[in-house]
Design brief:
13 helices, single chain, two-stranded antiparallel sheet, 16% strand
């Protein structure tokens, strides 16, 4: 099934949602609590977040399952509830999305590295396969493997998601601007270098999220487009680079400041745009207004 690609054919540009974690904490999530556990214990609060992005005009929304692999859940003693937690995550977003908005099942990194001998490729594959299947069973239209800094882990996740569900798979890496004035993952991979191995693993859509405001994402997308002119690209930028105010990280870009950069991001080659850290339904609504008026 190619629901995201079909939607892109119809609309040419899709708008995704924004940050989730910020709103969970605003609703009372404690710093030592598992965010994904709320899919079972406080589903209405999770639903409110998903619905807020639907109401803002998003074409796609994510699921509250970023840290939902059994490997991450084990740290909270919840690994044995992995299937139920992820299925509920997709069901909640599916309910909020209705018929017209697509649901992307979110899969984040495990925090374990093959290179360091902390986990085997087989263990990673099995964990991602189990999580992907649960998200698909809950009604996800596609899987998004996101915020990856280890290309090896990303490849395993993409393969597991594609082979276990048959759904479209999106993969976004996180890049930082280095002292050498280049964008690289934590493991030293450039945006261009990530494309071929992820496509070979089965990814249908690539991109970048987190780590940068929109300005940085423009340069990342330009580099990706020099390697592949056709692959659809997704960007979830932060609301600017964080600054410290009163001991807390604050993302400074207002909805207007962020949305006014969207045309340049689209001209660079992005096809799906949304937000990551610091973005709100107001940011997404402002982006919707800019793009729908193009």
């Amino acid at each position: 099934m190619s629901k995201v690609l079909e939607a892109l054919k119809q609309k040419s540009i899709l708008i995704s949602d924004g940050a989730w974690g910020t709103f969970l904490y605003e609703k009372g999530l404690s710093v030592d609590e598992c965010p994904e556990s709320w899919n079972l214990s406080r589903p209405e609060d999770v639903y409110d977040i998903a619905l807020s992005y639907v109401k803002s005009g998003a074409d796609t929304i994510l699921t509250n399952s970023f840290g939902g692999s059994s490997i991450k859940l084990d740290a909270y003693g919840l690994g044995n509830q992995c299937y139920e937690i992820n299925k509920a995550a997709a069901e909640i977003s599916r309910k909020a999305a209705g018929k017209d908005v697509l649901v992307l099942g979110s899969i984040g990194p495990t925090g374990k590295m093959i290179l360091m001998g902390e986990i085997t490729e087989t263990e990673l594959y099995d964990a991602f396969k189990y999580q992907s299947k649960a998200l698909a069973d809950g009604g996800a239209d596609a899987i998004i493997v996101e915020t990856m800094s280890d290309l090896d882990e990303a490849i395993v996740a993409v393969k597991a998601a594609k082979e276990s569900t048959g759904l479209e798979v999106i993969c976004t890496m996180t890049y930082s601007y280095t002292s050498a004035k280049e964008y690289r993952t934590m493991m030293g991979v450039s945006p261009g270098e990530s494309i071929k191995p992820l496509l070979e693993a089965g990814a249908d859509i690539l991109g970048a999220n987190c780590g940068n405001g929109t300005a940085g994402m423009i340069e990342i997308i330009k580099e990706m487009r020099t390697v592949d002119k056709d692959i659809p690209l997704l960007v979830h930028a932060n609301a600017g680079l964080p600054i410290i105010e009163d001991g807390e990280s604050v993302f400074p870009e207002s909805p207007e400041e962020m949305s006014c950069q969207m045309n340049k991001l689209l001209e660079a080659g992005a096809n799906i745009v949304g937000g990551c850290c610091g973005t709100t339904p107001e940011h997404i609504e402002s982006i919707v207004n800019i793009i729908r008026n193009r």
